[in-house]
TrEMBL record:
Protein known as: Uncharacterized protein
Keywords, comma-separated and alphabetical: TPR repeat
SMART domains referenced in this protein's UniProt entry, alphabetically: TPR
Composition skew (Basic and acidic residues), residue ranges: 493-502
Repeat (TPR) residue spans along the chain: 277-310
Source taxonomy: Bacteria, Pseudomonadati, Bacteroidota, Cytophagia, Cytophagales
Keyword Electron transport annotated: no
Amino acid sequence: MLGATTSCHYYHNTATHYNSYFLAREGMNKFETELFQAHQDDYNDVLSILIPIDTTVTLTYKEDLDYVITKASRPIKFHKSSDFIDECYLLVGWVRLYKGDYENALTTFKFINSKFQDENSRHAALNALLRMFIETKEEANMNLVLDIIKQQKTPYNKENTKNYHLNLAHYFRNNNFYPEAIKHLRVAADLEDKKIYRSRYYFILGQLHEKIGDINNSYVYYSKSRKISKTNELDFQSDISARSMQPVNFDDQKQQKKIDKYFEKKLKDHNYWDYRDKIYYEKAQFEMRKPDYDKALHFFNESVQVSTTNQTQKGHSYLESGKIYYDQKQDYIKAAAYYDSAVQNFNESVYGFEDIKARSENLQELAKYTAIVEENERLLKLYDMNEEERKEFLEKEIEEEREEIILRQQYAVENEKKKQKPATSSSGSFSNQESKEFYFYNTNAIAQGKAQFLRNWGSRPLEDNWRRSNKMDFNDNQVNLGNQNANNNRRNAQGEKNKEGNEEGENEGDLFADLKSLDDRIAEIPTSDDELAQINTKLGDGVFGLGKTYLYRMKMNDLALENFFRMVKQHPQHEMAHEAAYLIYVICKTDDSCDENVAKNYLISHYPDCLYSKILVNPNYIKETNERELYIEKLYTDAYKFYNQGNYNESDIKLTELFTNYPESDFEIKGRFLRVLLIGRTTKYYKIFKKALEDYLEKYPDSEFDEIAKGMLQEINETRLKNGYIPGRYHEYNITIEE
């Protein structure tokens, strides 16, 4: 009987281990390998330690995952006594996790941990739970699992220990706790047998050490990664990163030249032609270590210009340039342009994208108000010049803009040349040499020639004697008017033909087409007091906008104060000057660079009628104001109620209190019209009522009761005025003027 049981158990183990479980495990290994290979790494950011579980990606492998779960489920159904059932359940749980079926994955892993005796399977299930809660960012549950793991009496085996540390390294990397990530990843890397993964972990350790400024260890781990790397991509990335992090004495010119020579060699190597953007990027990172920020900016720019298909790499080069202008040079306008370009080249999966985008938006706001300030300052400067000075200033401005356009054109040509991969063959046949040298076969030479022509001569139509300012034809030193007219007609006809036919003579692609003319620039200069006031108002808008941007978006109190002080000094009558004075007071309450009491007294003395001043003088102002407004509303409501009840004397008393104690209140106009109606109800004479209506219309010509009052006035004709008395004191009108 015992032998039969043993044979049966052996059968189930064999059938499971070498059939269904084997196929399921192989299917899972195939899926995870393909998932790893398909993952796109961003080598300018710390690589993901574990491949993120993204259901939009994993569900594209639905058939592979379904195959795994089909094979793994078979032993659970037909070979329940097998020793490999727990491993089958583990595979089922992982399939559910990869599919995003977290609830059933949780149930499966908890079942394994509670129902099976095999410690390795139970530990693997706890690791899987830890991974799931890291991916779903459920830190409370993650900490609960960690507490359970710490209570385990049996030590983890090598595989489970490695996976435990990988999970924690992955968690700390994702949350920017780099020292903790390093601690766990070191353990995991040493336990990893497969070189393809160990080289990756060493590379990530190099990146993590670089992040915390540990250059020496960064170089060590990049070098380790390069020595055992099994892929061309990682070999290149680890090699180039190791060089940029290589320990160097920057006073030793030989060492620097050696590294520069390495980078130059890489740049000339045709095998790395499409990686030149990364080489320039690492070259810039090397310059940042000195630090030489101008050289770094140059190489980041070169990285952008030689970029071919790697948009993310281009985005990082823009981003690093933006950081230099933001943090080191504090040129926020240039930083804005680079951050904007970075956002345009990144996709939302780039780590920290939301923060980069937020800073870009803040800088764009800053650039907008800076442009407003600079443009209106320019116009005020031109306003103060005499005519000769203006012309000289604007002509110089136009010339500088033309030079900039030409330089940009030449720069674009040079950059286009950099992207063209040279022929690898060293042979130079006659035909090849001819095609390179013949001008009109070379588009770059044509573009350069056009730029040079525009620099020297400007934009000119295609015509005879194009260099002459006076283009008349001369014959025997006599002006031949007939020939001149004929030539002019020919040129006009040719110009029309070019315009209609879009031929070569047309000014197509004129570099200066969008350049503002001298007359247009002169027309923008204010010529009247009203125009001057508008310019000053716009300037005030820009200064105040800058102050608020620095305060609320950039969190830079010093620059915010600088602009708010400028606002109250140079634009004290601006509609937002009182708010600028109040924001100075708000900043000074927490900033030692200015005196809170001085700011408070300035606000109260210069803008006593603004709400901020009233609150500072009387902290109960809002409460008292609300109570006052409620009382005013009650006075009017009571007056109207008494009017409807025919108690005209009490109504008049309430209105008198309203007008006497609370002039220019929100109920002033309503109350005045109610007083007119009271006169109509109480006077005996049309003449008195007419005078009351006329006075009301004169004082409040655009009130909400304007049409009603005019209608009443039209009813008082000459016959009624002659009779004098109002029959029934105007009771035919029953006007509603409720709130």
